[in-house]
Amino acid sequence: MGQMAETVTLTTAQAIVRYLANQWIEIDGVETRICGGGFGIFGHGNVTCLGEALYNHQADLPLYRGQNEQGMGFAAAAYAKAYLRRRFMFCTASAGPGTANLLTSAALAHANRLPMLLLCGDAFLTRLPDPVLQQLEHFGNPTFGVNDAFKAVSRFWDRITHPAQVIQSLPAALATMLDPADCGPAFIGLPQDVQGWTYDYPVSFFDKRVHRIRRQTPDHDEVADAVALLKNAKRPMIIAGGGVQYSGAVAELTAFAEATGIPVVETIAGRANLVHDHPLNIGPIGVTGSDSANTIAQEADVIVAVGTRLQDFTTGSWTAFAHDAKLIGLNAARHDAAKHMSATVVGDAKLGLGALQAALVSYRAPADWTARAQAQRATWNDYVAENTRVGNGPASYAQAIGEVNRLCHPRDRIVAAAGGLPAEVTANWKTLDIGTVDVEFGFSCMGYEIAGGWGARIAQSQTEPERDTIVFTGDGSYLLMNSDIYSSVLTEKKMIVMVLDNGGFAVINKLQNNTGNESFNNLIADTPTATAQVGVDFEAHARSMGAAAETVSSPAELEAAFGRAQASDKTYVIVMKVDPYEGWTTQGHAWWEVGTPHVTTSDKVRDAHVDQESSRHKQRNGV
Hints:
Residues 223-356 form the Thiamine pyrophosphate enzyme central domain. It comes from Yoonia algicola. By secondary structure, the protein is an alpha/beta fold. Helix content is 35%, strand content 18%. α16 links the parallel β18 and β19.
């Protein structure tokens, strides 16, 4: 008979933590723990057992205490972005509302294809004490609860019903988070009693394991089909998405574009694939893009979409391209590669671009096409220079962005999210170095900005501690979620936070007005139930959480204030009012489909509906 495997008796929670502490990844030849630690708020659903296990692994898996579970999830997502999906953080929350608060951040991670491990309290498996505090009761299905809601926003979902189950569940969750095609959040529900139950685990389960991200070689025939399309292209274009960076394929993208002369446009997630002055960088594409990128997109006959999921802000709700343009989808995910009847090249972007370049050794895009694209970009650069110029009209997002862009270090990391700022940053920011821009627009999630900045700063402090993390947020997002300013002060993870106050949800007010509607319930001044018009002292509020802060009266004062923020040794908040009506970037917009009323008593709304529908003929129908 064979010798029995050596075992160790551990609780379920202890086994989970010990396993995570022994998972490593090789990044550029250096081994590091794949889990950078976690974010946790304890409650009765996770403090006694999981908390006990984490206490004994503080050196291996540092635990950051958040102020809000949703913010913890945003921070974990930003951390994963900063590490190009090669490392992740876990989030732990108690059963009930603590766990429910993570739903939004799980959805954000799912939309953006980001790894995040959620270790959440769950109802007692035995049901002996049911119904417990914060437990939802479904009379016809006692197994159904809040945690089942995560099935819609997780790439991997499991509930641990026996301690032995983690031997299968944890590797499966990790494999999902490391898979370039299926990457996303993994949810593991931990019933409160099961967390403390014991099992004799094989010692070998906890051996150190070094992981590597899989690189799938594209199929030879798919590459050949794509090459055949490109060889006949007269007006080719590359759309570079966030997947280019996750693949580590920036050098290959640059080499492919330079070898072929094919113009490159960027998605929001791919906003820092090329520096702004690269001669083949024609600008950001789509609804919040540039005239230069959108002009050539409408004329391109073959479009290579690399590492992008082609969401509607990229495609202009599928009006950005000619009806007869041919698409080539190079993507690790088959689902994304095959969109709109694309010729698929399913595989790693780094390997796929290399294969395309090798097969196109004698091909070069027509010189007049490349020159036309570059001329369009030069015109756009002139527009951005004037749009961001201090003194060009009332104080605006664009002016603040331009000043920070001029004053920051090339390796500083920029974080923005929902509202008007993603469009303004995407259109006006001049990328100074590769991989330095995080505009969260996959889920367009208010509240990501400050929490995400904290998570990004935790990652940045491990790789480039001398550089700054710069957050752009509006007053609306600030009021929704600001408490991680306090988190950053507690953990000494300094951020520079630009709070640009336009008196409410001004970008939605702009959409409301642009569709013929009257201003209603977006700006504080136009909220009927806001009978007292009271401004918020954002500077005092930030100071109350331990940050340094100041208010400037105009963009002209930003240079001195930003210098003080750079010199500060703790989080520094700069507040400035911007005009809610004027100063918006008016150029560079592709059509965007929004639902408008087909019947109305308002002439303005009816006229706006007719104007909106007048562009629908440009919309591709999926082929």
